[in-house]
């Protein structure tokens, strides 16, 4: 009888090990190098916050898709600014920066906000001042590529497309500023082409990680929308919108048309749906459907993971192109790229 008990206990232990999914990291899009970097932290017993910071920082350094880090998505004035967030699901603490100027390491600056202030978000020029106080180096975020991109948009394309509404161009200026129009009609709207929202315009790295202690963290980094109105901040640095984490439930992160998505706090909603018993896939679908019901033309995706390491995703607005995300956990020899179909409504 004793031998049977030992064998049964051993079998259950082996089964538990074989089903173990944590530590684990999931990442939006096909940002493989960021996933590998974060996984290397986790597999060595590192903290989930470290995995998020280092993983998103790799994307900043490598300028993923031209929409993360320096040298991409210049605003109307030709300047690149950065947004980033990091959230600790153990303490429910958040650090974020928005419209960060002249400092490349946005994710690391967000981590310093979390660890060295009682605030949650610092923005603009004064976020840069804080970064310098924390030892970060000031340098231009403009590159030859981003400069050429802006020059073409400004001189050849006459500042189109852009994000203005209900305004008319000032005829005395080559390219803006703009004047409000009291009697705004469809006729004077014709000069405003639609801004294309796609992977290479609203592409954020979002990550969720669980370490071997069960601590969950989530984070984002982006340089925002191309040719945005200076000062614009999207969803990425907003807790509950760009990302959210709670050790007792799980974590989620979002990517896409941030001006629309932040109105619905999709990452928070996905976590709350998992709290109510939904699977990660169901939770992500609920968050996406909530947005699409009001904005059927928006582009975006949500990835979600519960505290046990089960994960899922949902997306909208990519047409026939599936949305990719990267996963690596303790059961895998290497990372895996998953995809999800973006047809709507999602069932």
From TrEMBL:
| Catalytic center residues | 204
Q: Which domain of life is it from?
A: Eukaryota
Q: Where are the residues marked Cleavage as a site?
A: 203-204
**What GO molecular functions are on record for this protein?**
N4-(beta-N-acetylglucosaminyl)-L-asparaginase activity; peptidase activity
Please name one Pfam family that this protein belongs to: Asparaginase_2
Which keywords are on file for this protein? Signal
- The signal sequence is 1-16
Work out whether the entry's keyword set contains Signal: yes
Where substrate is bound, by residue?
A: 232-235, 255-258
Q: Which GO terms describe its cellular component?
A: lysosome
Biological process terms from the Gene Ontology for this record are:
proteolysis
Question: What InterPro entries does the annotation carry?
Answer: Ntn_hydrolases_N, Peptidase_T2
Q: Which PANTHER family does the entry mention?
A: L-ASPARAGINASE, N(4)-(BETA-N-ACETYLGLUCOSAMINYL)-L-ASPARAGINASE
As for family, the record states: Belongs to the Ntn-hydrolase family.
Protein name from the UniProt record: N(4)-(Beta-N-acetylglucosaminyl)-L-asparaginase
**Native species:** Bicyclus anynana
Q: Show the taxonomic lineage.
A: Eukaryota, Metazoa, Ecdysozoa, Arthropoda, Hexapoda
